[in-house]
Amino acid sequence: MHIERQALQKKAQLFGILEQLCERVEPSQTQEDRAKTSYEAVGQWLASASSPLLSGSSIYLQGSTALGTTVRPIGSNEHDVDLVHHLLGLGRWIEPARAKALVGDRLKESDRYRAILEEKPRCWRLNYAGEFHLDITPSIPNELCARGGELVPDRLLRCWKATNPKGYRDAFKRRAELVPQMRLLKSFAADSARADIEPFPKRPRFKGLLCRIVQIAKRHRDVYFLKRDAALAPISVIVTTLAAWSYERAVASNVFDSELDVLRIVIAGMPDFIQRPIVGGRPTWAIWNETTAGENFAERWNAEPARARAFFEWHAVVMADLDELGRSAGLDELTGLLGKSFGQRPAAQVMQDLFDGMAAARRSGCLSLAPGLGLTTTPVSRATRVPPNTFYGSL
Amino acid sequence: MRIDRPRPLTIAQQFIGLRSNPACEGVGRLGGNVLTWRHQVSPTVFSRAYYARIEYRQDRSPQVYIDGPDLTALANGRRLPHVYNQFPSRLCLFLPGSGQWGPWRRLDQTVVPWTALWLLYFEEWLVSDNWAGGGLHPPEHVGSGRRLRKRRRPNSATRPGSR
Predict the structure, then answer these.
(1) How far B149 CA sits from the closest chain A CA (Å)?
(2) Residue of B nearest to A197 (CA)
(3) Residues in chain A closer than 8 A to B106 (CB atoms)
(4) In angstroms, what separates the C-alpha of A210 from chain B's closest C-alpha?
């Protein structure tokens, strides 16, 4: 029981460490608030255009910012904010390039936006240096989609492609609201064993488990591909979609000991949701967008099989790294493993927070030693207070 | 208010204290004038399990050793900070003569938590090469020796007949 409890404590606190790490690599609340103010202003500017083609247009968030799964790119403080500019009055009759030009022209009418505007293949980017960039992709209604889907230009601006950012977001949020069943909550509630499982002292703002799992996977991917061919890295929508599906299945069919176990099972299950439809007698890759017909997130794996290989290579490494983290013994070993998997800087910062918390508690006399837990800054029953001392001896 | 020094605890009382504290669950031996206590300690849930040994003679300073894992091996060639002895590693946990430790204080409430604290800073030191736990060094060492001489100078100047 003692050993089992200790293992649970470790898992609970390890997940806390990973959450803190996510907080270090995601945009701050201030950055998010500033981005929101900026994109709302752009939305108003676009909607108030005199051109009848832009009338009734609206702007909304898509991608990781909409889902709460953003991680900042490594070595940069700027994060992407992906926006859809939905042009309600347009239809398939307009060329994608023309629709994009309409949006660009309206942005250029403003001195403020013209100065920070950058053209990308499919979208317009507004660069808020040092903070974030807003990527604005035009979209038109997809009258063939019964689920409110939209059409966006393809990468070459030649044709319209089916997508459904709002439907995707709603499907993700529905899964993110699922709460996994925890074994201790169920069976040990009476003897309050769970009550002294100490969460990591400084709990980051609450995000929900699925969002954290996606962030952990994406951050690991970013670090893994830093020293490899980054162009082959699985795109975020693939990581997010597979994790969300795997999470839904895991929550429906398991009872867990800890959030760390949820993380492990969800990531382990991701490849199960990649389909291999036979097309022209050959197996192809498919990860279909379930919220509209005709969008295959793994489309490019078929033209470039190296992308599929890169996904599976990364997946094997992320699994091995999570297992190794769970087995680590020693704060020194943990720091090294976290650094290797998620980047030296955030790993060092999170470990420093842990030490700083202990040191502050020691100074204020509220550090104690608890059985099965070690030194702790929160009051725990049967703990021994650490009295003041001065380490002596040679250095 | 009592200002007398509290009565020293006997080693038998210390033994009972160690045995009753779940923070240092272990095994001990009480023989003649000597108390030996062995317990496992992990400063955090992420830490190794260390095997600590307390040796205590009545009216002497308690001695705390780490029997395993070998700290000098973990240190990988670096000299361990704040130890009386590198191997077997004997930890320097308190300032002698400061009152932090006294025979009237319980081992399980002093050197036991201090051992965990020492190991916390040890694991941090393994990463950063910096001992963040603070402390003092014996005066024979160059740094602190100089500080001691400085402090004495004004005293000797004011002492009559010191020349």
Answers:
(1) 18
(2) B45
(3) none
(4) 24
Could you tell me if B109 and A387 are in contact, meaning their C-beta atoms sit under 8 angstroms apart? yes
* A206 reaches B (C-beta below 8 A): no
Q: Is B99 an interface residue toward A (CB < 8 Å)? A: no
Burial (Cβ within 10 Å: 0-12, 13-18, ≥19) of residue B66: buried
Q: Could you tell me if A100 and A151 are in contact, meaning their C-beta atoms sit under 8 angstroms apart?
A: no
**Of A341, A274, A265, A277, nearest in space to A312 by CA:** A274
- pLDDT tens for residues A324-347? 999 999 999 999 999 999 999 999
Place of tokens 């069976």: A187
pTM listed for this prediction: 0.89
| Termini Cα distance of chain A | 40
Q: Which two tokens stand for residue B82?
A: 């704040």
**Token reading at A172:** 């993700």
Locate B138 and state its tokens: 């014996």
Best mutation target, B25, B41, B45, B101, to test chain A (most A CBs within 10 A):
B45
The burial of A141, by beta-carbon neighbours within 10 Å (0-12 exposed, 13-18 middle, 19 or more buried), is given as middle
Look at residue B80 and give its three-state secondary structure.
coil
β-pairing, A132-141 vs A79-86, is parallel
The answer to whether A57 touches A108, Cβ cutoff 8 Å, is no
Amino acid identity of B149?
R
How many angstroms separate the CA of residue A329 from the nearest CA in chain B?
5
- Name residues 38-57 of chain B within 8 A of A (Cβ): 41-49
Kindly report, residue by residue over A357-388, the tens digit of the pLDDT: 999 999 999 999 999 899 999 888 889 999 99
Task: Tell me the CB-side half-sphere exposure of residue A162, using CA atoms within 13 A.
Answer: 20
Whole-complex ipTM: 0.87
Strands A160-163, A150-153: pairing kind: antiparallel
Judge: B48–A14 Cβ closer than 8 Å, yes or no: no
Q: Which residue is associated with the tokens 């918390």?
A: A357
Q: What is the pLDDT of residue A102?
A: 93
